[in-house]
Write a structure and sequence with these properties.
By secondary structure, the protein is of the alpha+beta class. It has 13 helices and 23 strands.
Length: 452
């Protein structure tokens, strides 16, 4: 994309309503614009990040054996009355009445709809297990929406739902999603720590929330440094009961807790050299809740003995739009955003410091043609300082800087946004470095198939 023709409305001043770094930077870098309290329009730069996060989530869900569906945003109230949640959910639910006076609602979550779809279609234990997921917009009418997309009213979420014949099967599904989540967050350049959690309004018995460290996090967290050392993406854990048991044993052998669940006695037993503390942001949550929905909604399958059984369920959520803000909270500096390679809107920015110079223009056009849609070409007729400032603000992982002196010598300056490191290289070397940099610096890490 040529920046001179793009719709990326950057701002020099920080809007007064933006209280935290991610909100300030998302507005200043032209990622989003607010249309109503807690509701945002996603502009091209922000939408590209959103889609990259969605892609990684989808790839890891598919690799774990989950199947994608798409459920509607508007749901019939009768399903929620069946489960008993319609009156209990409270004012966060946006309730609607259509022209035929039927009670409807804008879905804040999808347990009822997925249970209804399941009971219409699955009738035998031979059809289990099933894990179904979708990525869809949701709405919760927060009293005081704040912090931009971190706590908005409308948000994009991946929610998956598992159905198993018995508790043992439900545990395998739960652990499957836990491993998929660890790989998902690592591919986004995040170190997520799973912590035992309360079930909240959804209910349940087994529950973990996934926390990433950030100074503005809503919770104080305590965890063993071992979580920082494991490469989940390339670990040879398969999605089978044996490997998942080993994975879960490892996860639960290391201490991790938010302040609400913190146990000082257990914390004292952790080697002081391995203790880590900080503030954390929740980016995902998984629940096991048994027959909480299948029983009141009478969703059953025939077991091996012919008797009807209510399947055991679990629910697994990832805040896709929330992750955009969470990544920024965890990865920024005074100049702007620092995107991980895997979710950046563009892999590189090409900065033409002397527009109109034949050699600079020719070199930039050649680089842009070869990088294609992975690059943002700053071809504006403006000061070099403004181009540097905007490139840092937008957070592209690489900047390829083309000035008249370097271009005449057949060189460009390559800058790594995360470290600030600069070096003079040939255009060919710059292309090679940018093209081969993948998630976590590992060219195979982006593909679940690479794990075998």
């Amino acid at each position: 994309m040529r920046l001179s023709r793009s719709f990326i409305p950057t701002m020099k001043e920080t809007p007064a309503e933006a209280q935290i770094a991610s909100h300030r930077l998302m507005l200043r870098a032209g990622l989003v614009r607010q249309t109503s309290a807690g509701i945002y329009a996603w502009l091209p730069l922000g939408y590209r990040v959103l889609r990259n996060i969605e892609r990684i989530v989808r790839e890891e869900q598919d690799a774990a054996g989950a199947q994608e569906v798409l459920m509607p945003t508007i749901q019939p109230a009768e399903l929620w009355r069946e489960s008993g949640r319609y009156d209990d959910y409270g004012k966060e639910m946006l309730r609607i009445r259509d022209r035929h006076e039927r009670d409807m609602l804008y879905g804040p979550t999808n347990e009822e709809v997925i249970t209804d779809l399941f009971r219409q279609s699955v009738h035998s234990y031979r059809e289990l297990p099933q894990i179904l997921y979708h990525i869809q917009w949701k709405f919760r009418d927060e009293v005081r929406p704040r912090f931009g997309v971190m706590r908005g009213r409308e948000f994009l979420m991946k929610d998956a739902y598992s159905f198993d014949l018995d508790y043992a099967g439900a545990v395998v599904s739960y652990r499957t999603m836990m491993l998929a989540y660890m790989r998902t967050f690592q591919r986004m350049g995040l170190k997520a720590i799973p912590m035992a959690a309360d079930s909240g309004p959804i209910g349940g018995d087994l529950s973990h929330e996934f926390i990433i460290l950030a100074p503005t996090g809503e919770s104080q967290v305590y965890f063993d440094a071992g979580f920082e050392d494991i490469d989940w993406v390339n670990a040879r854990y398969g999605y089978n009961a044996y490997d998942l048991q080993a994975f879960f044993d490892l996860m639960t052998s290391m201490y991790a807790a938010t302040d609400e669940k913190h146990d000082p006695a257990k914390w004292d037993k952790v080697d002081p050299a391995r203790r880590r503390e900080g503030r954390g942001i929740e980016v995902g949550h998984i629940f096991y809740f048994g027959t909480k929905y299948t029983r009141p909604m009478n969703a059953t399958v025939a077991g091996a003995d012919g008797k009807h059984v209510h399947p055991e369920m679990g629910s697994y959520g990832v805040g896709v739009s929330r992750l955009v803000g969470a990544v920024i909270e965890a990865s920024h500096d005074e100049a702007g955003i620092i995107w991980p390679d895997s979710i950046a809107p563009f892999k590189a920015a090409i900065l033409n410091l002397r527009r109109g110079d034949t050699v600079c223009d020719s070199m930039c056009e050649s680089l842009y043609a070869k990088l294609g849609l992975t690059a943002l070409y700053d071809d504006r007729d403006t000061r070099a300082g403004e181009k540097f400032a905007d490139a840092d603000l937008m957070g592209h992982p690489w900047q390829i800087i083309v000035g008249p002196r370097g271009a005449a010598a057949g060189k460009v300056e390559l800058k790594r946004r995360a470290t600030g490191e600069r070096r003079d290289v040939s255009p060919e070397d710059a292309l090679s470095i940018v093209a081969h940099r993948r998630e976590n610096g590992d060219p195979t890490a982006g593909s679940p198939l690479a794990r075998g």
